[in-house]
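Exam review. A common question shows you a sequence with its structure tokens and asks you to describe the fold in words. Practice with the pair below. Do the first one on your own.
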Amino acid sequence: MLKLCFRSLLCLALFAAVAQTPAQAAEATETRPPEWAQPVEKDYNLYQMSPTLYRSSLPDGGALPLLMKLKIGTVITFLPESDARWLSTPGVERVQLPYRTNHVDDSDILRALRAVQEAEAKGPVLMHCKHGSDRTGLVAAMYRVVVQGWSKEDALNEMTEGGFGDSHHFKDGVRYVMQADVDKLRTALANGDCSTSVFALCSLKSWVNSTATIPRLDPQAALPQR
């Protein structure tokens, strides 16, 4: 009799432990550091990173009422396709900065960060790609590190564990973040440089354009008059 009671209690205890596991897992999933981007709308993978910056997957016309409610003034896409297909709202600026995480360099990140900062000066900003995970996730992580001063570790934790998408999407972005020279990026961003390297294509183009605009002296005009 005692053995039977003991076995029954043991079974009940095991059942209770198993029954609590999903609830505990759900609670752990819902526990989110307050400094991480906070969910706004799951259907669009829409999160708020700061009072003036949001991130999402590719929106559509159905998202417009929500974007208007959030007072979004600029939408930045990292896709090669224009947002004009779904966004033509007067007063909302469209910015297109296509890039790929497997071919990203410092000039791509600086261009994106600069666009975000310039747009934030005018009001709330939404940045997005197709799924809102890899391209958007990389820019978000670099914004955290370069602009907001987060550590790489903290930014990568948010990128990979924040619930923005499948982890296999992040490998190229993680590689870039780990190798990025944050001090050089921060200096280039502050100075208005297009890249951290003077040998980057955009830097060479800028140098060629600057030399082309230098006024040339007329050798005859330089001669002393008699």
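Now try the second one, then compare your answer with the model answer below.
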Amino acid sequence: MRQRFGRPTPATIVALIALVAALAGSAYAAGRIDGRAVKVKSLPGNRLKPRSVPANRLKPGVIPEAAGITGQITGSQIDERSLGQVPSAGYADLAGFAAAATEAETAVNAVNAVDSQTVNGHSAGCLPGTTRFAGACWQSSANEAAVAAPVAAAACAAQGGTLPEALQLAAFAQQPDVVLSGEEWSSDIPVVTGPGVYGVVVVLPNGIINFTTASNLRTYRCVIPIVV
């Protein structure tokens, strides 16, 4: 007895039509869509099948020469010469050059200061007939003429110096080859008894400190700054 097939239902017809459309669309896509039909940068790298893109289709420089490296790249696998300079490293180099230049200039200035006989246009160093002591230039011998204290002070001022302080003059008297010429004037005034009447400290050859009236006549020596 022959078996009869019934009429297909509407649902079956719709399913057949959908199947045919799907197969036809896949076949069309396989035959019509290739890499040229894909918009540039429209597919992320993680959506591509591994080994699906040949190396000659990649932009030069995207894959390093060491193509055999797999997994994470460590610092030991990177040629440091292929890396550019970090911007902050450039600043560090400039800072190093600046520091070196400053140190070099300071060293040159120090050498020049030692050898220089002038500072900002002023004479530097002790002149002949003077001895360096206590950071200044002291006259090696006292002036021969004995004068009053105000006259002695004025004479030293005219040379750009002053009378010595009493304690420094006493210390200077103890230096080798230094002999005070009797009582010598200092710049110290221990007592004032009235207008124009005052005492001035004097120092004896043995370093003893005394004082006498400013109008008396005594010898003196001047202390002149190293830079005049």
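Model answer, second protein: Residues 219 and 227 are 25 Å apart (CA to CA). The domain at 130-225 is CATH 3.10.100.10 (Mannose-Binding Protein A; Chain A). Full marks require stating both points clearly.
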